[in-house]
Amino acid sequence: MRVLNLASSILRNRIGAVPRPSWCTYLVCYRCNARCQMCDSWRLKPGSELTADQVDEVFAKVGRLDVIRLTGGEPFLRDDMSQVAKAVETRSRPSVLHITTNGSFPEKIDEFVRNFSSPAKLRFLVSFDGGPAEHDANRGAQVTFQTACESVDRLVALRESHGIQVSVNHTVISRTSLRSHVELRARFAPQRVDVQSVLAYEDSSMYGLKRQGKKSTDLIVAAGYPLHPDLDLAESIDFAERQLAEVDLIRDRWVRRGKRYYLRGLLARLKNAQDARPRPKCVALRSHLRILPDGAVTVCQFNSERLGNLLTQSFDDLWNSQPTRDARAWVDACPGCWAECEVMPSSIYSGDILIHG
Prior knowledge:
Shape: globular
Oligomer: single chain
Distance between the termini: 18 Å
């Protein structure tokens, strides 16, 4: 991470100025071969997707970034995923290229790592919904627990030779899923793979079939946490407390610090604290840029209104346009969510993690 850029971004975000983005979440596709009941990505119309050449054009406009998250949908449904990642890495030269996958294409993932020119930048997060029965029942026949484990196994085998990092994300979707967390950790402990967790939100504007392209203000609450209806609040509080007590077991010190920060805020919100802390200034449309599969720029996880398109507009025109300025004012007035994909860039580029981390 560029220290001077970080310091400048923190200062500009804290005084309400608008820096260029340093963190980008790029949805390479909506298409997904999983059939998760808590996510409608597989139900959404795929729409158009940037070609690899167009990705190169878009990220040339964006310029240098610290962190890029490639996500979906399922990124490895793209046959040109290697070319997409190469274009992103070449044009924006990130320190970290983070890829979230459901692990259903172990051979493609293996080949991708072996052929990528800067593998030490790669951070893989393979997602699970619990133990084998719960995972397979939720994700469907094309995205099995066994296949996802094979992807983790292959990534672990490449870890030493290629310098990549791999971890598992456990999306806690039900009471059964929550209780299987210990089983998941035991499965991957011998491989020294950290298993992180996130409690499923009630819904999402980004992936909700009826919410896409809209503001989901009902999911952004001043106090509390919009927990998925299949989760029990008391069990979720107990689970989060245990996760916080065990956070020092996470091997990567930066991930450990970020997870500690996140879990403290999660517990405060689960307990319905009226002034829950930490509460970083949101950096959406400042240090955090979200790009959709067709090159459109949107606001955040809970406001998926489209502000323009980087394929057809210059970066400066879009970043300084009236729709973007209006959306930025909406972000500034937002009471704040606690979705980890929004919290982490905000904690870093607001500087709040330096105070409360």
